[in-house]
Amino acid sequence: MTPFSRITGTGSFLPPRRVTNNDLARELAARGVETSDQWIIERTGIRARHFAEPDVTSSDLGLEAARHALEAAGRSAADVDLIIVATSTPDMVFPSSAAILQNKLGISGCPAFDVQAVCSGFVYALTVADAMIKTGSAKCALVVGAEVFSRILDFNDRTTCVLFGDGAGAVVLEASAEPGILSSDLHADGKHVGILCVPGHVSGGQVLGTPLLHMDGQAVFKLAVRVLEEAARACLQKAGKVDTDIDWLIPHQANIRIMQGTAKKLKVPLEKLVVTVNEHGNTSAASIPLALDEAVRGGKVKKGDTLMLEGVGGGFTWGAVLLNM
Ligand code: ACO
Questions:
Q1: Which residues are catalytic, by number?
Q2: Which portions of the chain are predicted below pLDDT 50?
Q3: Are 73 and 197 in a shared domain?
């Protein structure tokens, strides 16, 4: 057994259609829904998001991100012995988007499954992959966050539809003699189901309930800042590290105000905060690996840097992973 797991490659993919706040405001105005570039930027930091075409699925976006991550790791799909996809917008009710992605990668046999923890999905998936590598169940895992949130947005609800976008990010996590993932800390509290949910399900050939995103934004905001700080501090403590050891803070990209509030509480200077929410919007489980890949490819994150990844989302779920690149 190898004592550690380490990220050896990152990748991401955004669907080509970029929708600015002004584009969206025009589309919404045609429905009688009023919003503005200024309101969206001031309250969220979002300037644009990407939307997938109707026939594009989470596994399609995940496939492109996975290919880039494998290439960066110098691996081929045949090396992969575990696939975990974090998504709340799977291709089908079943099978998992991970099984569909496995087939699209042209491989078979290795375990493949989805993790459903909404916007915390990627830190959940990374933690599971780390544990499977440390116990010898896998050596080369593909961990993907992929979403088509545009499918579950209510474009008559301006308080939510301006916040989200589509995309995918991926990492290759491999068994390593050197420490990569240092610690993780995951939580859920199901009593908050109602503040952020898509309250619909399939029954008898029909959708029952409302298959569109519902959110109490202010309740989410308050909870998010508190739990993100707690999870990050727990990770630091488990790894015997302190806040000044963090080279880069990569939180779930939901809202610039939540992200800056968390950085402030953790005493991480804003120059060390990786921000992509301005261009991606909130891509749920894809947001952290998307931001990580942009930071790696943009030359910010370098080998040996210490990263704090943090997710929070529906459930309520939250968690953090501290790692060395
Ligand atoms: N355009 C214009 N006006 C709007 C819009 C919009 N898109 N949305 C709401 N408003 C109006 C409201 O109607 C309200 O008007 P009123 O005062 O006349 O009633 C006013 O703006 C203020 O609305 P609030 O809801 O109080 O605005 P707030 O400052 O709380 O910002 C926001 C709303 C951005 C949703 C904020 O609460 C937030 O960011 N919450 C966290 C949401 C989040 O990050 N969720 C995702 C995390 S988990 C996950 O990723 C799944």
A1: 119, 252, 282
A2: none
A3: no
Structure tokens at 292: 């990580």
Q: Say if residue 255 is in the same domain as residue 272.
A: yes
pLDDT in tens, 260-292: 999 999 999 999 999 999 999 999 999 999 999
Query: Given the CA of residue 282, which atom of ligand 1 is nearest to it?
Result: 50
Is the torsion defined by CA of 223, 225, 229, 231 positive or negative? positive
For residues 50 and 86, state if they share a domain.
Answer: yes
Are 242 and 313 contained in the same domain?
A: yes
CATH of the domain at 94: 3.40.47.10
What pTM did the predictor assign? 0.96
| CA–CA distance, 277 with 275 (Å, rounded to integer) | 6
Please check whether residues 236 and 156 belong to one and the same domain: no
Range of the domain at 289: 181-324
CA of 321 to the centre of ligand 1 (A): 28
Sequence-ordered strand ranges (E) for the chain: 4-13, 18-20, 48-50, 82-86, 112-115, 140-148, 166-176, 181-188, 196-197, 200-203, 206-209, 214-215, 248-251, 306-313, 317-324
39 Cα: distance to centroid of ligand 1 (angstroms): 9
